[in-house]
Specification:
By secondary structure, the chain is an alpha+beta fold. About 15% of the residues lie in helices and about 35% in strands. The chain has one helix and eight strands; from the N terminus they run αββββββββ. The protein has an eight-stranded antiparallel sheet with strand order 1-2-3-4-5-6-7-8, with no helix packed on it. A hairpin with a 2-residue loop joins β4 and β5. The longest helix is centred in the first third of the chain and has 22 residues. The protein is globular, with a radius of gyration of 20 Å. The chain starts with a helix and ends with a strand.
Length: about 140
């Protein structure tokens, strides 16, 4: 009997939730998903700045978590900087993808239909306590 009453109640809650998301255009377009099994690896085969058209990627990107990613170059080296943090050297790892040499960042880009660049950024968060595993945060580039 309890199961019979629970099913219609769950159905009504789902319908109400769907109605709220359809009516609220200001809804946040990101979802927090636990990133398990992720890691950042610097491959043996790296692409330098002249092997990739880094000029197409240089600039500032808003992140879905409210942060800012800046990509710059100096000489033949490419750099990434999160918010006002330290800048870290990056290398190309393939078509439209880069990784930080210190394994703190990994990014992949794609050109949006409007011509802007978008993509994903994987950020390694160092543990506060020695011996704890590294935590990863996956955010989108806007």
């Amino acid at each position: 009997m309890k199961k019979l009453l629970l099913a219609p109640l769950l159905f009504m809650v789902c319908i109400a939730a769907m109605g709220q998301t359809a009516q609220d255009p200001q809804m946040v377009d990101s979802v927090r998903v636990p990133a398990t099994g992720l890691s950042i690896v610097v491959p043996e085969h790296r692409l330098g700045m002249y092997a990739v058209d880094f000029g197409a990627y240089k600039g500032a990107y808003d992140l879905s978590n409210g942060g800012l990613l800046q990509l710059t170059s100096q000489g033949r080296r490419m750099y990434a900087q999160l918010d006002n943090g330290e800048r870290t050297e990056i290398v190309g790892t393939g078509l439209q993808s880069f990784v930080a040499l210190d394994r703190s960042l990994q990014m992949s880009f794609e050109r949006k239909p409007d011509g802007d660049m978008g993509g994903e950024l994987l950020i390694a968060r160092t543990p506060r306590v020695a011996g704890e595993p590294v935590q990863y945060l996956l955010v989108s580039l806007r």
